[in-house]
Write a structure and sequence with these properties.
The protein is an alpha+beta fold and 251 residues long. It is 16% helix and 47% strand. It has 4 helices and 16 strands. The longest helix has 12 residues.
Length: 251
């Protein structure tokens, strides 16, 4: 039976949303529509071909990283999901709260420390398109990924498949039936110890190397250059304010 719990939205929170909107809009050809309703705090929706792909907003908390992407999982009941997260050994970072008539949001943290959004839709259902120039994949990079895997199975009802990547490393896919929804792996040892566990968002592109070069030319930092793997090609970068993101082309 298909689960209701799957990636449904992503948004960027940053100290200077004008900078992040200009960077990502230029890189992926997005248009920005900013709400003039004060209850939404200047939230901007990025569209591609007139269809919503992502959101942008300024930080409410000055202690947050300069830029970060939030990934949201659909839930028919955000309060029940938050309670399930607590029961599974996670924490509720932000209890469910209504966002106008759009829906109800919550934020949970898994046992590895990574934060993930929950979205109970009302008028705003989430992604209106995925694929090229939009959401392509989500991946947990964890310090101690082991306890996080059963957490997500318990909270969302996903199963998992783990593959040996060689060199003593493995990669876990969270599954809905046979459909692969998201990935999880131990955080790369070359990342500084100060970097906490996090969910990385990948954008689907037609040419990873060319998009990587364009991003660097626009002010991005390269973490992992265009790299082939068994399923395609990926790259990982940081935007001009330091927020990590990935590029992906599946074979």
């Amino acid at each position: 039976m298909a689960t209701s719990y799957r990636p449904v939205w992503m948004d960027n929170s940053s100290r200077d949303p004008d900078v992040t909107r200009a960077f990502y809009g230029g890189l992926f050809g997005w248009q920005m529509v900013t709400s003039d309703d004060p209850q939404y705090g200047g939230y901007a929706t990025a569209t591609r071909g007139g269809k919503a792909v992502a959101g942008f907003i300024g930080h409410a908390d000055p202690n947050m990283p300069a830029s970060n992407w939030n990934l949201y999982i659909a839930s028919p009941d955000a309060a029940a999901t938050a309670a399930a997260a607590t029961a599974a050994g996670g924490t509720v970072v932000m209890a469910p709260f209504a966002i106008g008539d759009m829906g109800t949001s919550a934020f949970i943290r898994d046992p590895s420390g990574a934060m993930l959004g929950v979205w109970q839709a009302a008028s705003m259902v989430g992604f209106e398109t995925q694929g090229l120039g939009a959401y392509g994949w989500g991946e947990l990079n964890a310090r101690g990924v082991g306890p996080a895997i059963p957490f997500y199975e318990q909270v969302f009802g996903w199963t998992q498949r783990t593959s040996d990547m060689g060199n003593g490393t493995s990669y876990t896919e969270f599954l809905d039936g046979e459909e692969s929804l998201l990935g999880a792996q131990e955080m790369a040892p070359q990342l500084p110890a100060s970097v906490p566990s996090f969910w990385l968002v990948y954008f689907a592109v037609a040419d990873v190397a060319a998009t990587n070069d364009a991003a660097v030319a626009a002010g991005a930092g390269s973490m992992v250059p265009a790299t082939d793997f068994s399923g395609g090609t990926f790259a990982i970068l940081t935007d001009p304010q330091g927020g990590a993101f990935g590029l992906l082309k599946m074979a």
